[in-house]
Amino acid sequence: MFSKSCEYGLRAIIYIAQQTEHNNKVSLTTISEAIDSPQAFTAKILQQLTKNNVVTSIKGPYGGFVIENDKMKTVTLSEVVKILDGDSIYTGCGLGLSQCNEANPCPLHFKFIAIREQLKEMLENTSLEMLVTDMSTQNFCLKR
């Protein structure tokens, strides 16, 4: 459903949010190891998230990645998905067909509309802060 970069991006942002909650800055190496992602790939994803002001990159020996407190409350998973994958998840064919539309639907077209709407609602209504709060009561693993 999501591209690989979006999957890694979501895992990275959740990991950074968890660490930020404990007042920790995290390095690229630590993030890529924690989410089981190639370091160069993770760097490109974090560069996009930094450029779009979702995460903050602090340079220097005591630097790392963090998420500002106001961003924790306001950034939703939908924003992260849009930065990394665009809005194709909300508009594209469930089977990946280029010619699928209302006039020429694929076999899953009308069933996928409801799923897509539920996914959109969940992504738009889930902030980083909500995830971190939910995760603090459970034990999650961000590796595959």
TrEMBL record:
Coiled coil residues, start to end: none
Pfam families reported for this sequence: Rrf2 (PF02082)
Organism from which the protein derives: Flavobacterium jumunjinense
Name of the protein described by the UniProt record: RrF2 family transcriptional regulator
